[in-house]
Fold these 3 entries.
Entry 1:
Amino acid sequence: MELGLVGLGKMGGNMRTRLRNAGHTVVGYDQNQDISDSTSLADMVEKLPSPKVVWVMVPAGDITRSVIKELGDLLGEGDLVVDGGNSRWTDDQANAAMLDEKGIGFVDCGVSGGVWGLENGYALMYGGSAENIAKVQPAFDALKPEGEFGSVHAGEVGAGHFSKMVHNGIEYAVMQSYAEGWELLQKVDLVDNVTEVFRSWREGTVIRSWLLDLLVNALDEDPGLSKIRGYAEDSGEGRWTVEAGIDNAVATPAITAALYARFISRQDDSPAMKAIAAMRNQFGGHAVQSGPPPGGDASPV
Amino acid sequence: MELGLVGLGKMGGNMRTRLRNAGHTVVGYDQNQDISDSTSLADMVEKLPSPKVVWVMVPAGDITRSVIKELGDLLGEGDLVVDGGNSRWTDDQANAAMLDEKGIGFVDCGVSGGVWGLENGYALMYGGSAENIAKVQPAFDALKPEGEFGSVHAGEVGAGHFSKMVHNGIEYAVMQSYAEGWELLQKVDLVDNVTEVFRSWREGTVIRSWLLDLLVNALDEDPGLSKIRGYAEDSGEGRWTVEAGIDNAVATPAITAALYARFISRQDDSPAMKAIAAMRNQFGGHAVQSGPPPGGDASPV
Amino acid sequence: MELGLVGLGKMGGNMRTRLRNAGHTVVGYDQNQDISDSTSLADMVEKLPSPKVVWVMVPAGDITRSVIKELGDLLGEGDLVVDGGNSRWTDDQANAAMLDEKGIGFVDCGVSGGVWGLENGYALMYGGSAENIAKVQPAFDALKPEGEFGSVHAGEVGAGHFSKMVHNGIEYAVMQSYAEGWELLQKVDLVDNVTEVFRSWREGTVIRSWLLDLLVNALDEDPGLSKIRGYAEDSGEGRWTVEAGIDNAVATPAITAALYARFISRQDDSPAMKAIAAMRNQFGGHAVQSGPPPGGDASPV
Amino acid sequence: MELGLVGLGKMGGNMRTRLRNAGHTVVGYDQNQDISDSTSLADMVEKLPSPKVVWVMVPAGDITRSVIKELGDLLGEGDLVVDGGNSRWTDDQANAAMLDEKGIGFVDCGVSGGVWGLENGYALMYGGSAENIAKVQPAFDALKPEGEFGSVHAGEVGAGHFSKMVHNGIEYAVMQSYAEGWELLQKVDLVDNVTEVFRSWREGTVIRSWLLDLLVNALDEDPGLSKIRGYAEDSGEGRWTVEAGIDNAVATPAITAALYARFISRQDDSPAMKAIAAMRNQFGGHAVQSGPPPGGDASPV
């Protein structure tokens, strides 16, 4: 099939390659003309045969919304926009409604795969009508991994991004699970070679997984992780997962723990712990330690 | 090699089979004479050539300690006891010291694999001296999975069970991670087929894992998990992981969340929440809802 | 001063009484004509001298927004609306802007006090311009507790409800703190009379508080809390606090734990724990317990 | 009454004063001879009339155990030892059994009050037989606050320290509750004067408490808490509370959150978060940000 692809960064660029390798025709557009196949969004749209399919692969939020709005002006009846970025599912219905007024279809698609996707395929979770999804199905088939799994029509518009959001929430918590285990094993003297313990878990255990494999890779490249700082950003999707849980009265304590650990990792000092320290000072005895036992003293609280 | 194996239940019985399939001679002992190869612990020991190696595969705690104590009386200089059960690592050093007085070696070995171990091999994490481990290495090689990974000499005595304990702690939290995601996806109307979303994640995603595969199997066998109750026991190892974290001032919020979720799943009613409800009643307004808006009322707290 | 008061339920009714006891003139309006001082919002507004001050004390959300919208049509230049309900702070700026177009001022006021407020006074946290607050200050002075504390001008529009929201978030977590301690003391045989332990804490301890006093009252009225179910609703403010934390990258683990405990208290069965149980069944051994030790078996995972 | 008092540090010294102010005779012993009333434990014991009562007020753990052991050698039939330190309740039964062999009674007593205790009295939670408690009741009456509350016979030996332990666990979580609220209020621009908001809460609110009063004091002394580091030690009792919860399958998520926040406050860098960052780097895209939108890129995971 032929499709337009907006955003040719690390993700979009590799996806273009994978689509072309599968025999599809991709007209890419990127502000960076060095990598762009077209000079403008309008130029890209013009180069596509009707019905036109445009895949948007730009950062979530305002940028996605403005690109989709602009496409609403450029496309027409029977065309289709696919939002493959990390948009919040709540944006999808608004985008779909706006495009629908002009007869343009909309499909939202959560994409997972990172730098490994070019070779191994991208996991795809998409939402929309069966009719619209059929228009982009050949691209989905090319992008997904070769095996039996890796793509799903999750439901109506928004279901793709919602599913991808939950995927990322789970990812946060699974990563946190290994990280806690690693910190504990590192801390005790009893265990000599923590990396080898983690490596051994790659087969035969209940916890074997791709993230475990990645962590072992990282430990091989940087033993003890001495070169890396314990600092982690969060993309929006962990936050949205917790918020969706709250909106639906679903407790997500492990996912939330993972999210909060990231928040805290980015603080130089913790205001909350200042308040704790301040209260401890007030009821006293915690700043000063008295003399040697048994002339010592029972800590007062 | 030849070895004694105490405990021929679901785990021990399958391990005997896997060892024999690999050409080793196993003299098993079990109180259930229908499955036992010997009439008593003493009989089993007598049937083994020296230096004798006995693998203990009985439930953790008092039973393991009493079996090992009895073996201390039956074995002698140069013999070896392997504790393959889910013992707490703090037991290992006591057992090793007790046996050491008689010149008997000790190796602790955490074993993972469940009902899949017979076919796929058991993941093994063991602790002890290199000399003692050499005596049982052929059995380790037969039990472990065929691939490159799946067994590790984790460190001194206790390191095997400590590593296995942390493995299980991670397992709790990883399971909790998927479970939270599943509950959230189930709760929203937006996503039509949650099982298909989970199935799609088996390839190409960041969160692909064996536990995910198992969950998809379970969802296929019992769609919506309507036949299963939301109730989970905990073996000791999740508790011990959290306690080891506390002893070492290592925060394990995701693992702890998973443990607490199991505690709560087993309560018919929550005493803590009774106290919450009681306090809410005291400051009032929560039991009674006043008339229709705008004659309604702002909830007071 | 004279003011209109919309909503004469449990909170609004008592506040009218407290205001009148302080010598103020209150024209109340409620859909329930038995308790209303006016026949309609329009009638209430008409009865007030200019500049008119109307205090809205209805449930948060749609109802508050519709009452304020209606007041926007009835009031005029120089008049003032006070929203004393549990509105989300994000509503305040929208309401203020809408009223501002007609020259009507707006003050948001979080009110705490419950059924005790009539006698002891209501804690007030308000937001808005100094000029607008001056117009309603006599009412604030009448409603607040007699002591030195209990009311605050927290900041611009929205700051009152934001502060009240955080107050409630803290309240959730403080209640959860006592509740956890109570459950633990109840559970152990060692402590004979848990109520007396809690009662003793009312003086001399670090944790003495009004909520503790309330819990002791509740324990006196219903020893062991045997008559109450461990079930707790949540008003929106706990959720909003956690969400505000997430929006600001502020970790609120104790408040979140309290919120999640309420969610879980309302579930008959936990979908997440169904998923845990299902995974445990898959890797096996957890549904079936094997024979007597030492013929027993080590639990596999 | 007359009693010996071992340990005259900040707590013990003030308790001696309060006991003397109430007319009791105290023979204190401290290694620091400048403050001691006796030259040795033996000297102190000798100075007491029979039956002798000795209150031990030294730090928990090894020191307490060794002092009590020494007293076991110095005291005799009918005498009494009171452990007023922060001992773990599990120590109490061992100490009581050891002393019981010599006919010496034992009472455990958790003491709360800090630097405020001298003036306001100490909250006391004690465990032991009624007979033994009667022997030290006059001292309890002198030490406790003057009001109706503040002391309790919680149960058998160990119940005092268990109750005090739970008190401290609750204290951790209540402090964390205020701390989280404070951090959130500080973070947003909307609220102008966070200290004034906290101060207002001292009356009329659901969350008024002594700890709130202390936090306001601290905020007055050091506005914004700019001079204090967000670092908090933990005495053993928070840990023991969580462990006692785990032993009894009682979930304590808020208390645990408070404990973990302290652990994390003491880390320069978080090993767990290093592991998170390392995994994120492995699946890529998180270290590098691509060009300007729409030539930008959707974050891959």
Note: Chain B touches chain A through 80 residues (CB under 8 Å).
Entry 2:
Amino acid sequence: MANFKGHALPGSFFLIFGIWWSIKYPLRYACKKNKKVCSFGSKVGLQRLEIIEGATKAVFALIGMIAEQFVPDGPHLKLYNSEEKQWSHLMNWQHSTMYLFYGISGVVDIITHTTKAVPVAIDRMMLSIAVFVEGFLFYYHVHGRAMLDVHVHLLLLVAVFGGALCIFLEVFHRGNIILELFRTSLCILQGSWFWQIGFVLYPPGGGPEWDQMDHSNMLFITMCYCWHYAFSLLIVAVNYGIVTWVVQTKMKNGESLEMELLKSREREEDSEDEI
Amino acid sequence: MANFKGHALPGSFFLIFGIWWSIKYPLRYACKKNKKVCSFGSKVGLQRLEIIEGATKAVFALIGMIAEQFVPDGPHLKLYNSEEKQWSHLMNWQHSTMYLFYGISGVVDIITHTTKAVPVAIDRMMLSIAVFVEGFLFYYHVHGRAMLDVHVHLLLLVAVFGGALCIFLEVFHRGNIILELFRTSLCILQGSWFWQIGFVLYPPGGGPEWDQMDHSNMLFITMCYCWHYAFSLLIVAVNYGIVTWVVQTKMKNGESLEMELLKSREREEDSEDEI
Amino acid sequence: MANFKGHALPGSFFLIFGIWWSIKYPLRYACKKNKKVCSFGSKVGLQRLEIIEGATKAVFALIGMIAEQFVPDGPHLKLYNSEEKQWSHLMNWQHSTMYLFYGISGVVDIITHTTKAVPVAIDRMMLSIAVFVEGFLFYYHVHGRAMLDVHVHLLLLVAVFGGALCIFLEVFHRGNIILELFRTSLCILQGSWFWQIGFVLYPPGGGPEWDQMDHSNMLFITMCYCWHYAFSLLIVAVNYGIVTWVVQTKMKNGESLEMELLKSREREEDSEDEI
Amino acid sequence: MANFKGHALPGSFFLIFGIWWSIKYPLRYACKKNKKVCSFGSKVGLQRLEIIEGATKAVFALIGMIAEQFVPDGPHLKLYNSEEKQWSHLMNWQHSTMYLFYGISGVVDIITHTTKAVPVAIDRMMLSIAVFVEGFLFYYHVHGRAMLDVHVHLLLLVAVFGGALCIFLEVFHRGNIILELFRTSLCILQGSWFWQIGFVLYPPGGGPEWDQMDHSNMLFITMCYCWHYAFSLLIVAVNYGIVTWVVQTKMKNGESLEMELLKSREREEDSEDEI
């Protein structure tokens, strides 16, 4: 969907996952150091969490695929227009393919954490492949469009391929908090940048259009991308700080973190509702 | 051989190896975890298997080289046409060179697993080099052809260089099941994509030709490549599931896996016959 | 600030840090081997040092940002010129963004070494990101300028991306003296190259201008870059030699290194004053 | 020196080192496994060998630099021709710079193995830098020449950057026989390719010139490069086989390998004389 909503949808998905990760990983890290107080750190609890995460990913991917296929001007599962002798709605099909691989990654997550027959690192490998495929399709996707349009999408590729590489490294360094936070920050960057692309290419509310060929617009957008990343780092840092502070406070009070975890989940659902 | 058969031949080689690996590596992984029941896991058995695999690789490479050299319009080992003062049949010679390196890799496999004087990781290093050389030659191979022709070959390079990198990593992480399955999936992708190239560039049965300069064809082909990979992942996953299920059933029955292994080999030969 | 001072300022920052590192890392390495004599090697002392270093980095970044914003022809925090309907002073804003990320890195350094809640490797990760962002912005920064101007900036990218990669590796190999010395040499290279860029593009004292389109100038500048690196390696080697010699002499005399450390700090401040 | 000798000289240097390494590393590997019989494996002996190797490297680099500077049409240490207001003999200066970094690497080798104050991995790091600088200068070196000329030099870069990467990995995996053999094969490839470049661009004995713009020449040369590598792999394999066989025979006879080592050195010097 080459319109505002078509960028806001994936943007929201990435933002939700990024913000969730920015709570989950610091929480796990803090719990690992203070084993007594956290019931969160239990193996069964973590596994259940991973399964829920995988299922959410798969559902998001399904929503994305259905949206791309069955919007009014979508392909409705029709790939080849035999009357006009040409492919129909290739853009929507490409987006569907991107969602498909995230869906596979979600399913693999569920399988990995429900059975013991599969090596756990497979979930990271598959996520890395999904992210790489997204970048791979984007790379050819924007061929032949206006300069600014191409540029904003290519900038996205830095986050995408950076993320794919980071997740691939996690196959070998599983549970490395540095890589997990790095991935989180790139995920939030991707999410917020999708929204930015929507605002730049399809100004909502009939705002003024951006001059697609203006060189200074390109320079500004590149810099803007860095600001998004600084902002993304800030979110990760703030959430890290809050989570660590809460865990340490709990540790002193000797209370269970169970409740806190529930709250954080609710908060997550709230942010989901907002978007 | 720039025709349908010239792409179907290597495609079949890669498919056979890919499907074989998608049985072998899950089998070894399942056996490692259930050591009692598997006679497959024995060191001598595995070594013999590696030698057979190496010999098969070398034979396939030899068949490929002979086919490229002695087809009716081939070079018949003649490199320079001194009458016309120019190189003759450079394409066939380039293909022969690609096969040559796979042949070397096969020979190195055999040597590695028959003598103890050679470090074992050499087999992966040599395979990585062979795959890299294939990609290296392909990269310059397609210089100056039609757009779609170039594009379908360049897409192949993603699988080829990805494979070379993955195998190079195996030099340091030998026996890592994640890397082995990743390599397997890329190998199947290469095999099926060779068939796809054949169908696109030389439609068999006098089908309609593809418009080589149509931009939407390029977009479709890129997406199609991703579908091939999704399909390849499916094959690996299904075979992994079957193998794991069989091993676990056997484990319960306490029977030897010897018979199963024989069957899997037969199945492989069947699929070889089909192609 | 596209003038001589605008290049001399960051150049001096990098030189100061590079030369400081070329003393610090050999000193720590020598002390680790001769634990008895060095009070420098104490954990608390090292931590305090890291905090001072982080604070210095943050202050340098702040100076850079203020200089870029409030020079007479600077943007004075104004981003959009609504009269002329275009972005104003984008160059200065880009430079400010580069400094911003180094500033974040400095702040993260301080946080990392004052609290135990944050994994230590975060400081390297953030520095790696800061260096990468510098390179990323430079890459698009020079779009559309004269050939020599582009070339001298692109050469810088080799040191920048090399540095980013090296620091990223330090996340996994923290305290590896080889990587630390390599980073040091690249940092000095960057510093001296910024000065060189200033001299080439804005010859001070009304010297003769360089012909921006002359091919032989490009060849010379490329070679000159290598000489700068050879020079940078020499500085690192000489400082390494002096530090090691001093530590070994002290070891024999059994004196504390405390004094020496103080001196090295003073020496550093001197070189700061000079620039 | 843009002539046949200017390519034969570095080619010979690389060949000598490559062939020497193809004896040294298998010898060390075989000796490590059969510790009793080899006096070669002694620490002091190995260290002395490394020092000799470093000194040889430095001397070769010095010969190269002097040759580039003081050939009849060389720059004779003059960099700027102030009469014609342009740089003089930039090519020779670039070659000198390449040799310079190999010289530094040789000196670093000597320092590393004579004192204990320097971490040993520095020798690999410096060699990696030297190889990278060679590739870096070559990349810009060939700008604006004829197609075939550019192509044969760019092909060289595959071996050069591959070698730089391989040696960089050795910093972390020192003594890994796979990487050492890989480096050896790339070194021989570089050596033989320098000779090939000489024959292609400056056919000795007044042979027919190659058509620099013929596309099929480019295709042939690319393939030829692969054959050189196959040949290089063969040399490494044969030398590996001979060395291993000799060591195993000696082991049975219980004789010292001292004599064998002397012979191999003499053989090396012979091949040096020939060239």
Note: The helical segments of chain A are 4-33, 43-70, 90-114, 122-141, 147-172, 177-201, 215-253, 258-274.
Entry 3:
Amino acid sequence: CRNLTLLRSIVDERLEVFSADTIGIRDHALESVGSRIVHGKGLTAGEYSPDLRTNFLAWLDWKLSPARPAEAVIDSDTTIGNCWACEPSNCNVTIELHRPLIPTDVSVDHIPEKIALHMSSAPRDFHVWGLRRHPSFAGDEQDQELLGTFRYDIHQGKPVQTFPLHVKKESPLSRLKFQFTSNHGHANYTCVYRVRIHGKEWEDPIRSEIQD
Amino acid sequence: CRNLTLLRSIVDERLEVFSADTIGIRDHALESVGSRIVHGKGLTAGEYSPDLRTNFLAWLDWKLSPARPAEAVIDSDTTIGNCWACEPSNCNVTIELHRPLIPTDVSVDHIPEKIALHMSSAPRDFHVWGLRRHPSFAGDEQDQELLGTFRYDIHQGKPVQTFPLHVKKESPLSRLKFQFTSNHGHANYTCVYRVRIHGKEWEDPIRSEIQD
Amino acid sequence: CRNLTLLRSIVDERLEVFSADTIGIRDHALESVGSRIVHGKGLTAGEYSPDLRTNFLAWLDWKLSPARPAEAVIDSDTTIGNCWACEPSNCNVTIELHRPLIPTDVSVDHIPEKIALHMSSAPRDFHVWGLRRHPSFAGDEQDQELLGTFRYDIHQGKPVQTFPLHVKKESPLSRLKFQFTSNHGHANYTCVYRVRIHGKEWEDPIRSEIQD
Ligand SMILES: [K+]
Ligand SMILES: [K+]
Ligand SMILES: [K+]
């Protein structure tokens, strides 16, 4: 680098990505773009709640605390504490996208190790499922297809980790489920700060023609 | 650059500006410093609202959505969705400054293209007006002076764009109006994330003497 | 620097620290990790309030403004205006930590000079006290030990300034008090944006054994 101008432009290029939601990739899961959490058995479930019978004080503390709803995982604010606490081996969250998409990648956010009180509650292993709503959809039953199995790594020093899906879809999906099956050692709960869904918008050839 | 120390200092210098509200320039328009939106015909007007008669569903959706008031444009939070939606060719927002100022520049913020769902709703052409409140001020009538005509460019990759005013004022102003007359192609609305007003504080020689 | 890869890694290393709460050091004072402000005479006191008798308009303005409670100082949001306003020479804030700690450093945040309307209300001289709650604790009385006397410097260009405590504790503390005794010239109030407490978690050898 012979001159400072080049240097400054490299810094600014990095800052540009950083200021674009840290990783510079569009996130379609955000509640603020119109997506939402779908509640229901097998869809979004496993919210942590201490057992009233075995630990009354922990339960009371939990009931009085500003515990976040599952919607926290599609809120871009990841300051400390802004996570959804769920059961370590049984933590499911399903997102209905603001519009059908061809998903290509997902991301998981946790707070940086440098400032976390502990990293044991960070998510570790998880599956991503594509859900299909049948015309005969009744209650919580729907087909699900495994799009990939991944691991969030707390030792690589990147708070936001992006994973390309193993299955390349050709038709769009409306619902994706994240199923977290383990954490990094915390006995009581996993704290999910944020999940992101990246992909391509899908133009329905028939609908496009009608609208034009 | 012979050593890493120089390199780190250049990075830190850039970060210092970035962490100072992205551009490192004082913004006097912020509601949090005491400025406010002035409502009224010709002042702040053109809020987007789908037509109930032609599109009942869009209208219903709009009424139920967390639509932002015009005050969003003087709130520093520019995460996605935190904008004021107004009519593409008729979008006016007037700010009463926390104290009279000699304005020198204005800025317009939009979200980075990398993360936006689309850029068509970004503002394009706009005028900035200085308003003068007459002693005989009645209702919405007041003198206005054109301070500059500008274009927000979505292709230059800078989410915050700063424009020096064409008219250099010698006496202070209390109210500035932004009039957005076009966007980048969206048929229904323009989304204004943030406007900023930069300038010099003006010391009234008479008042200063009294206070000293 | 023979190659751009090294350059980018240096930038990213700086960004990693920056994105970890600006300084990359764990803060135990945050309300979001479970710490809280302890109110009471000699603990948290000195909130600014204009005198109703001498300045009715200032008082009215104050009552109508979104004045922040003392809890603002343990909230990580330091956008402009998000501070606690207190009396210049009598500004005390006491934090009860989420768990007892061996404190090693404290930090004080203010907004960057580049964007502040003025820097005169920034805190200047302050003491940090460790408080001890006696079993015979009654009302507001408790022992306090001076852990250090520091000065926040508005001319060094660093909004977040970290100070190593002068006294190295060997046993943990639950409460720390910040006592601000001067500011940078503002006649009416000091604005405290944020205080941080850094330290080591303390493992009680007896309790640890029981839990294992
Ligand atoms: K979150
Ligand atoms: K905004
Ligand atoms: K604060």
Note: The beta strands of chain A are 36-37, 84-86, 91-109, 125-132, 143-151, 160-164, 173-180, 190-192, 194-201.
